[in-house]
Amino acid sequence: MMEIRTPKTGKAKRVLEKRAPKLVETGRKTLILHGTKTSATVSSVLMELYRLKKGGAIKYSRRNENIRPFESGGETSLEFFSQKTDCSIFVYGSHTKKRPDNLVLGRMYDHQVYDLIEVGIENFKSLLSFSYDKKFAPHEGTKPFICFTGEGFENVPELKHLKEVLTDLFRGEVVDNLNLTGLDRAYVCSAISPTKVFLTHCALKLKRSGTIVPRMELVEVGPSMDLVIRRNRLPNESLMKEAMRTSKDKPKKKEKNVDQDAVRGKIGKIYMPDQKLDEMHLHDKSKGRKRERKESKLLNEETDSKKNKKSSE
């Protein structure tokens, strides 16, 4: 019988609450893994993907012999690493004679493999091979533009699948509003053929246009590569229905110290700190104290005058 372990500390409870399913998803973390054998090209691609996703990615440099996507029993280690790191998308790099410079991109649902797509890397250019003005270099953690050009992304099923996976890989956290000054990068994907896509990373230069919306120019900063589609596996219908299910209830922000009453309506509580009047410093320049001093001075003068009269008599 399987033992069910419950959290015993507050920290463990907060970790489990953070990993629990949410109505509005936070940004997806990416897990980057090495296969049994990797080439120099695959290693540099994985490293540069980790730099582009810095802050939202976890990279393991140890080689993994038990991970074999597209094979039965070869996804157990992937699901274990996904549950351990709480990552919902992964990039797996390998190199064999049959499939050289190979990348497997996949998404997870409930720490189970949702879908897979395998691509080959060609014509790779690293970040260091591009020369540009460093003041236009994109900053870490900024939101990117993602541009897909070509009719293949709408007509070819494999390219449509690749488009969905690349969008989830690069878009980061979903937001409602965006500031134009914070946009400094763009990923451009061009469909060259039904099985090949050109991917490049560019910096955005904002220039004056004479209107409110600035004019944008692209500066290629790398990396860039050609992705050749080899294999793909779509999700099962039952798993897709479960993953696409949404709730009609929108999350409401909890208002602190506010209650609802059927008779009195909305009631709020205000907490005031203890007022230590004994320790408060009172100024001597108050009008009340001046009046008291004048009155006491007059009383003293009257008593002195009465004493002087008595003594003279």
From TrEMBL:
Keyword Nucleus assigned: yes
Q: Where is this region: Disordered?
A: 238-313
Q: Does the keyword Glycosyltransferase apply?
A: no
Query: Which residue windows does the record flag with biased composition (Basic and acidic residues)?
Result: 239-249, 275-285, 293-313
Q: Which superkingdom does the taxonomy of this entry point to?
A: Eukaryota
Stretches assigned to the Brix domain: 28-238
Per the record, the coiled-coil ranges are none
Identify the keywords attached in UniProt to this record, alphabetized.
Answer: Nucleus
What Pfam families does this protein map onto? Brix
Compartment list: Nucleus, Nucleolus
Its family remark reads: Belongs to the RPF2 family.
- Identify this protein by name: Ribosome production factor 2 homolog
Encoding gene (name): LOC104766278
